[in-house]
Every structure is written in C-alpha cells, then in structure tokens.
TrEMBL record:
CDD domains attached to this UniProt entry: GDH (cd05301)
A single cellular component GO annotation: cytosol
A molecular function (GO) term: NAD binding
Organism: Brevirhabdus pacifica
Keywords: NAD, Oxidoreductase
Protein name: D-glycerate dehydrogenase
Domain of life: Bacteria
Family the UniProt entry places it in: Belongs to the D-isomer specific 2-hydroxyacid dehydrogenase family.
Classification via Gene3D superfamilies: NAD(P)-binding Rossmann-like Domain
Length: 320
C-alpha cells in the first residue's frame, strides 16, 4: 500500500472525522449521502485500498466475491457488523474492524429514553399537547408503568448492555440478565444471571435487547418468548430489528399482554414497519442509538485508529 492510501468513505461522517481522514488519506466521498449500493462497493474496490463504511453498506457473500483484490481493509464505522459477511471477507484476505466501546453510553441512553417514554405514554402525550387536544385532566388519565423499583431483564451483557444496566441501576431497577457467559462479580454488581432466556423473561417487567444479530438470534423474541413476559411488560430494542418477530410483537401488544414497546431498530430499515404507525404504545426512533455529536466523532476516530494501525503494519485494535 502506498504511504498515502486511497480511502472510500461512502457516507457523510462527522466534520472532525472527515478532516482527519483527509489529512492522512486520499479520500473519495460520494456527492450525495446515500447508502453505497452493491455495484458501487464492487466498482470502488478497484479504486481504493481501504473502505470506511457504515452499517448501511452491505458486504454480502455475493458482493465480497466480486471485490477487486486492491481492497485490503474494511474499517467499519459501527459496532454491529451484521452487514458484513465476515467469513467471506476474511476468506478474501480482507481485514475487518468495528468500533466497540465508544457508542455504548449513547446507545444505552436511547434505550433508557425508549423505556421511559414507552412506559409513560410519550407518543400519545406529546401528540395530544401538540395538536391542542389536551382539554381535560383526571387522576385516571395517561396512567403509566413506573420504572423505578421495577425489574429489568437485559439480553446481552456486552458493553452496551452493561452501560444500560448502570443507568437502570441509577433508577433503582432490579437487574436480571441473560448472556452467553456469566459476568464477573465486579461487572455483575448484584445483577441476577439467568442461564437461559426462558428463566429471565418471567422476571422482566421491562426487557431490553443488547445482543448482536446473528443467524442464532433472528426472531429471538417470538410469540412463545413474549408469552413468558409478565402481563403488562415493556419491550425495548436498540440492538437490531432482526431480533424481534414484529408480527408476534404486534399480536402481544394488541392482546394487551405487552403494555408497550420502545424501538430504535426494525426489520426493514430505513422505513420501519408501517403496521406500527397507528400504535401509540410503540415509541419509535429511526436507528439513532449512537447519534450524538461526541459519539459520532468517537466512532469516526476509532475507525480511523484501526485503519492507521493497519497501514502502519500493526494489528488494528478492533480487528474481527
Ligand atoms: C452500530 O454501530 O452498530 C449502530 O447500530 C450504528 O450503526
């Protein structure tokens, strides 16, 4: 690779990230901020040494097999890498990295917001005041579900799950979790470990998902598992839409078994699920868990740190 490698950045990243990238690389950026298509990714692979994509650029096996050998590294600007066929990329000798740690707090904050908003009728309340429809008050009006002191079940106790647990603990919640392996007592901080998701669910007045989307976790939350939640539970998903069977979620909400849901992720993105639109008890955000100024800069810098290390012949910190 030349001392000044060519880098494709398909999306418009933070100003600080773009400035730093331009300092050290010959950067190619698109005129419009739109997801890079399969054909663009393939075409660009013959022109660049490195790519710095987001989760919106899909490196499926079919795409990876068409990549030009010039491309050496895909330094992702995301922690989730379900948009990348890792085996295929590694099979082609392409290094892949991600950006863990730096977005944990921002994502946990969105989970917290969705949990609180879903529990306290944020969608209906905001709309009522905004439209001038707030014309009476009664003690039985918009009564929600109290979060403080309630039990929260966390699926996936990686960095984001643990950041969320810290925040939930601050609200006086009782923490239960399911994870592939049990945390150390220092990390657990009194949380109750459940070896299976089935024993976790009945303890979860609120359930928050923080595990990656893999072939094993697709539709992890389905009819059977939703039925195991206590009646009136609230589901929060800031991880990936693939984790939730959305038809099952609607059935659970419509039957009253679930009180509400808070979703930042959907099976179809962008766009979401049109069937959710008339449900005031679904508090939705458009996949913006990590979207804060500080975190966007940190993600860009972490991706560039990985790229710099690779170019310097070192092992990138977040190589997958
Ligand atoms: C991630 O980093 O995985 C977030 O979902 C944003 O892409």
């Amino acid at each position: 690779m030349s001392p000044r490698p060519v880098l494709w950045i398909p999306r418009r990243l933070s100003d600080a990230t773009m400035a730093r990238a331009a300092r050290d690389y010959d950067v190619i950026t698109p005129e419009h901020d739109a997801p890079g298509t399969a054909d663009e990714i393939v075409a660009m692979s013959g022109r660049v040494d490195a790519m710095l994509p987001c989760h919106s650029e899909i490196f499926s096996d079919a795409v990876v097999q068409r990549l030009d050998p010039r491309l050496k590294i895909v330094a992702n600007h995301s922690v989730g890498v379900d948009h990348c066929d890792l085996d295929a990329l590694r099979g082609r000798g392409i290094v892949v990295t991600n950006t863990p740690d730096v977005l944990s707090d921002a994502t946990a904050e969105i989970a917290l917001m969705l949990m609180l908003g879903a529990a306290r009728h944020a969608v209906a309340g905001d709309r009522m005041v905004r439209r001038g429809e707030w014309d009476s008050w009664s003690p039985a009006f918009m009564v929600g579900k109290q979060v403080s002191g309630a039990r929260v079940g966390i699926v996936g106790m990686g960095r984001v799950g643990r950041a969320f647990a810290t925040m939930a603990r601050g609200l006086g919640m009782e923490i239960h979790y399911h994870n592939r392996s049990r945390l150390s007592p220092e990390q657990e901080q009194g949380a109750t470990f459940h070896e299976t998701i089935e024993t976790l669910l009945p303890q979860a007045d609120f359930l928050s998902l923080h595990c990656p989307a893999t072939p094993q976790t697709v539709d992890l939350i389905n009819d059977e598992r939703l039925a195991l939640l206590p009646r009136g539970a609230v589901l929060v998903n800031t991880a990936r839409g693939a984790l939730v069977d959305e038809d099952a979620l609607l059935r659970a909400l419509d039957s009253g078994h679930l009180m509400a849901a808070g979703l930042d992720c959907f099976k179809v993105e962008p766009g979401g699920n049109p069937a959710f639109a008339d449900h005031d008890n679904i508090f939705m955000m458009p996949h913006v868990g990590s979207a804060t100024v500080r975190t966007r800069d940190a993600m860009g810098f972490r991706a560039l740190d990985n790229l710099d290390a690779f170019v310097a012949g070192q092992e990138p910190r977040d190589r997958l």
